[in-house]
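Continuing the batch. This is chain 6 of the set; chains 1 through 5 are on the previous pages. Same settings as before, nothing changed between runs. Recording input and output for traceability.
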Amino acid sequence: MEWQTLATALFPQGHGITEDHDFLSGSAQVGTQTVAIIGTTGHTPIGVEIALKQAEAVLHTVRTHPQRPILILVDTQGQRLRHRDEMLGINSYMAHLGKCIDLARREGHKVIALVYDQALSGGFITSGLMADACYALPEATIRVMGLPAMARITKVELDLLVELAKENPVFAPGPENYARMGGVMAIWHEDLAQRLEQALAEADPVDHRSADGYARGGRKLAQPVIDAVLAGRHVLAA
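Output for chain 6:
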């Protein structure tokens, strides 16, 4: 979906979003409140420049509009794979973006992410997955690593990974599988404006993804491990 079409559906009252070399920023009205918009389009890879632009937009919102909700629109093919970006330390730039989003959350900004097209690898981890809650459109493409690349890295046969992906959402791409794992809160099928208003009303700074993944059967060990660690910590404290 083109971001202009998405914005029309999300913000029937109008918006002030602009595009600058695949970087989206601006504001819009959601119900009675103004929301800051930060995002990407054109399947753009996240390099040092766009990571800094996103971080700057987050910090500007924190400084000038205390506790204004932030909506992150996600469409990225992931981390930009160039020698220049690697030499400049792209990992640090992306970590900086993630820290800025975390700062916004700690300062009382509700942060919602919506994957409306592609969400791949590090570009997704440091944006959409840093939000209080991440949502997706049904036609979105979400994956951390494609199965052919996973086969090369893990040395596991591709055919075996394809079979595993049929039963285990950890190996499978797509918004439905990420919803099963708890990474995506829900998939928005219709009335996007109402869905967004509801998501902002229900935004919770407490991370429920492991519990959601356990309840949905997509991540069966993360929450039990967390519970065991917390129980051990309480024993030691006593």
